[in-house]
From TrEMBL:
Residues 2-250 form the ABC transporter domain. Keywords: ATP-binding, Nucleotide-binding, Transport. CDD domains: ABC_Mj1267_LivG_branched. This is ABC transporter ATP-binding protein. PANTHER family: CONSERVED COMPONENT OF ABC TRANSPORTER FOR NATURAL AMINO ACIDS, CONSERVED COMPONENT OF ABC TRANSPORTER FOR NATURAL AMINO ACIDS-RELATED. InterPro entries: AAA+_ATPase (IPR003593), ABC_AA/LPS_Transport (IPR051120), ABC_transporter-like_ATP-bd (IPR003439), ABC_transporter-like_CS (IPR017871), BCA_ABC_TP_C (IPR032823), P-loop_NTPase (IPR027417). It comes from Allgaiera indica. It comes from the Bacteria. SMART domains: AAA. The lineage of its organism: Bacteria, Pseudomonadati, Pseudomonadota, Alphaproteobacteria, Rhodobacterales. One of its GO terms (molecular function) is ATP hydrolysis activity.
């Protein structure tokens, strides 16, 4: 589905992404891991159109989407969430979901004056769909809560719910576990697996929680210093010497070896 070819993103002399190439296969839940500063979020931002690449190409289903803005990628079914949830805090959880679909009748002044029945019918349909999404995510009980008042984990579920309000093909999830308790993280993981299996969503997930990655993701791609370092199953990745060194550093790796041999 997504093919990244020799992608670079430079900020002055700093090469945040430095020749990364990778594939995200249709129907997969692909994990993207690496130490802080490896270039993972920058890679997401380039793929999702938030940053232009310095060099390289991004393909989606055989189409060159390099540099397309987020709203065009949204219509192609490519969506992303953020490490810090972006909710409309003064609106209810249900209303946050209802805001997602584009080109709604009520967005133009003409329709607001002369197509009130169509607007009302559309709002009822959107509210029904939002309630179905909330039930799927097991958070129906917060439908009428102000989004600014719900927990961090519930906000992450709300962001996932936004992707369900449109015809998403691939969703890039940036650290869904950040600041989330274990119970809600399990709920988020269950929802991702169900969306993958039941609705055919493709996911790419940045996450530091290796238990979470190991449960959900195959394959797992490792980045370090802006490049792809390794790829494989979670078990294979965690036995990879280069990956261990990238995460722990040479000194800690050698210390671990010494302790194992003692």
């Amino acid at each position: 589905m997504i093919v990244v070819e020799d992608l670079h993103k430079h900020f002055g002399g700093f090469h945040a992404v430095d020749g990364a190439s990778l594939r995200i296969e249709t129907g997969s839940i692909t994990g993207l891991i690496g130490p802080n500063g490896a270039g993972k979020t920058t890679l997401f931002n380039v793929i999702a159109g938030r940053l232009p690449p310095t060099h390289g190409r991004v393909m989606m289903d055989g189409e060159d989407i390099t540099g397309l803005p987020p709203h065009e990628l949204f219509h192609k079914g490519l969506l992303r969430t953020f490490q810090i949830a972006h909710e409309f805090s003064s609106m209810t959880v249900r209303e946050n979901l209802m805001m997602v679909p584009a080109s709604q009748y009520g967005e133009t002044l003409w329709n607001a004056w002369f197509r009130r029945k169509q607007i009302a019918a559309e709002e009822r349909a959107l509210a029904k769909k939002a309630d179905e999404v909330l039930e799927f995510l097991t958070i129906s009980h917060i439908a009428d809560e102000k989004a600014g008042n719900i927990s961090g984990g519930q906000k992450k579920l709300l962001e996932l719910g936004r992707t369900m309000m449109v015809d998403a093909k691939i969703v890039f999830l940036d650290e869904v576990g950040a600041g989330v308790n274990r119970t809600l993280l399990n709920t988020i993981g269950d929802a991702i697996v169900r969306l993958n299996k039941e609705r055919g969503y493709t996911f790419c997930v940045i996450e530091h929680d290796m238990d979470f990655i190991g449960r959900l993701c195959d394959p797992v791609i490792v980045m370090a210093e802006g490049r792809v370092l390794a790829e494989g199953s979670a078990d294979h990745i965690m036995e990879n010497e280069a990956v261990i060194e990238a995460y722990l550093g040479t000194g800690l790796k050698n210390k671990a070896k010494a302790e194992a041999g003692a």
